[in-house]
């Protein structure tokens, strides 16, 4: 293990509101708590950060939160000494003066580009390879992933044990839900919905409203609210809003801390998630899920979607595989969801068991923070 005083700098530009900062904030805290590393997290948008860490002072350029030194990455960059390990999250461009500081260090730092999560086959071949150089400082590719030969997924020590304890305790779940003002009807299925704008939502809400099973849909504040408003025929949905439409109850939740969001996912029978951070956390929940992947130009995101599906549906029966794959594809195309949802519901027990199996398979690999530390140990 590296010595306790090893210093790491992690740079994050907030592109998609919460995904980038969500990943880097989790990673920073874990490196401090589990590996004894001194971490500076450089963030260019403290307002987005404040949503998941309300203690953040958006007017302070340097502060400590949960053992992490948080620095505001401002346009008027002030020179600082480069760290032992430098992580550019999601290919963000480091300040020129900082790159000079890396090159001027007596001991060259390890410089890594922590890339976006992907299940595509080429990731295994590129993980850990050298990238560009700045003067004599070499940058390396570091890819999170789902297969051996990648950097794995963010997973704190003891996470699955805490999740199992929580899911096996109806009292703990009831207390948590009531703390958010959630009181589902007896026998109602709980579904969380965190997604980008989606034209397929109305058909899915129609299907749930017309179902024989009652559904309590929990919608954290976010980009999908506009589509929910249109379906309900209301304006200005805010946290606390509750609407009942036949078998469907829709409830808007406030944006919560990361640990509270984990508990929300653990409570739900099915989780619709988006981007990267919530996508990974839904997999650790061990429950069936629906992923809204971040849209990219020329639809290259659909290749990433198919690459993940090819791995995820392994072990499912052919009909269950077709049902969940059809649901994911329809959702990401903004197509009609009704038939796909009904097909998915028919395979519920198999999909529940499969979600837990997938979770355990992923947990058998090294977690992302541990893999980064091991890469540094091997490098030095």
UniProtKB/TrEMBL annotation:
Pfam families: EarP (PF10093). It comes from the Bacteria. GO terms for molecular function: translation elongation factor activity. It catalyses: dTDP-beta-L-rhamnose + L-arginyl-[protein] = N(omega)-(alpha-L-rhamnosyl)-L-arginyl-[protein] + dTDP + H(+). The keyword Phosphoprotein does not apply. Keywords: Elongation factor, Glycosyltransferase, Protein biosynthesis, Transferase. InterPro entries: EarP. Belongs to the glycosyltransferase 104 family. Protein-arginine rhamnosyltransferase that catalyzes the transfer of a single rhamnose to elongation factor P (EF-P) on 'Lys-32', a modification required for EF-P-dependent rescue of polyproline stalled ribosomes. This is Protein-arginine rhamnosyltransferase. It comes from Pseudomonas izuensis.
